[in-house]
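User: Teach me something about this protein's shape.
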Amino acid sequence: MRKGAVILFKDGYCYQSYGWSLQRPLGKIQNILDHLEEYHVDEISIIRPVKGMDNDESFYSDILELSKIKSSTPLSFGGGLYNKERIDRVRSLSFERLIFSSSLLSNSNIISYTRNLIGKQAIVGSIPLKYVNSSLMVYNSVLNKFVSIESINLKNISMCDELIVTDCSSEGVSNSFNMNILDHEFFNSKKIIVSGGVNLNKELYKEKKIVSILIENKVLHTEYSLKR
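Assistant: First, the predicted structure itself:
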């Protein structure tokens, strides 16, 4: 099982997020990448936490900053990948995989377009979830609200090689990922990456098709022993 980390990056700065609502600044992305190198993680996901419609000025400014970073760890990127122009620009950077979230909830052809360019193995879906009144809901970043999990487009899911499943309520909180989330039928046949309050006890994940755990950006404040 792989071990990775999440970096939230927007408007030139990185953030620590708690419960999908609170954020505090962490610093410049290169400093954080250098720090994470010491943990010897297998992969790093850089995600722009877009809430509501994303403007081009912010997106392309962030892409310019990301074009300057250096890392020996494989990088994935997501956040604001709404159209072909943005996909074409991001393809010029050194990302091994691209992450899609709100596009999973629409009939957009952007995932199909990207898959034809770089292959299914480089496509990752991101599904941020939480329970609302006992109902499992998924976050739609374009609408900036949680909607029914039934809003997920199954065709778009099928085009993803892996899925990042995030427990939004446990984000920024250690040892509290809600494993009941993975009982939903959407996750029966997919390779799953878990994020949001995960711990490093592999025994918890053996019964599920979990291929990776993302030790979220709290890793920058809490010492973990990734060796185990």
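Now, about its shape. The first strand starts at residue 2 and ends at 10. The CA atoms of residues 30 and 189 lie 36 Å apart. If you'd like, I can walk through any region in more detail.
User: That's plenty for now, thanks!
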